[in-house]
Sequence to fold (389 residues):
Amino acid sequence: MTDERFDLPVDRRQTNSLKWDVGADELPMWVADMDFPTAPAVRDAVERRAKHGVFGYATVTDAWYDAYRTWWATRHGFAIDREWLIFCTGVVPAISTTVRKLTTPAEKVVVMTPVYNIFFNSIENNGRRVLECPLVYDGHAYGIDFSALEAALSDPQATLLLLCNPHNPVGKLWDRETLSRIGELCKEHSVTVLSDEIHCDLTDPGCAYVPFASVSDVCRDISVTCLAPTKAFNLAGLQTAAVVVPNPALRRRVDRALNTDEVAEPNAFAVDATVAAFTQGGDWLDDLRRYLFANKRTVADFLARELPQISLLPSQATYLLWLDCGEVSEDTAALAHFLRERTGLYLSAGAQYGGNGSRFLRMNIACPRSILLDGLDRLRRGVRAYLGE
Fold:
């Protein structure tokens, strides 16, 4: 699929971009932001706000609440009550704050690895301990070892589970039955679920995610869910997100924590951008999803033809590909370093995600097709040089 809105490269160098703060000949395909301009409706909203010229303290408007509620009801079949929603400046601040509020120092937080590496920071930087429950990998797909998960949850020091739904970096959509089983086990062992659902709108065409809190009364009552338009609409720099907490007692604690940490007030652009995304950005997002899916197929075809030593893990969500490099190296930190030094291709080494990540590389394919093909060519040249071919 071609689409001029996504095909046209945008020069992001010299724009204070974290992703593109690299050498002149380097190609960054690591951190999870996209190389596409956001939806036109969002740009229009930000420009209107900027033209006003006064950027004082902002409030969370009725339109912000309505935008989240309508989007999740119509796109994801989940009815969110207004009072469940709390504004937050980002999903990561929400995770760190919730970890700090709902656990005590030295307690354990369960994570199913490999998983988003910042989970480890949010746990360890707050003086808590990571309790890994590795996902089961059969060489083609990941699943949950429920016996191992129950053993982890039954640890008397385990009080919180960090769930990634959809799962980053493996791109897996958890089905309703799996989420229900997770919820029942957590309820049985008095463990709260903190669900990071930031990638939920980036599913492949024809695929849908299931909000954890929508699965059952049990899942609803034991959960804190982090939502945002930032991944789907490329708005990470605007610092806008939401936390959904249906349980009133739990919500009071989380709301107090977010306000104590001063991460519950919007900047001048955060609300308007979110409202525009969720009220006017649906068609643009669906076109984006189709483009990303075509990029996935481009990668799959390229690897099968040019680099059969690397296996692309099938995924249903996110623009982050999990590449099994086990036939090339079991130490992808060394491989990633070699690729960057030899070709300029900057990928994420998998060990930082825990579990069996040391045999994987993570590749961000949210870029124009021409840039993707450049990255794949660099990958081919680098891997062949690494193997001495």
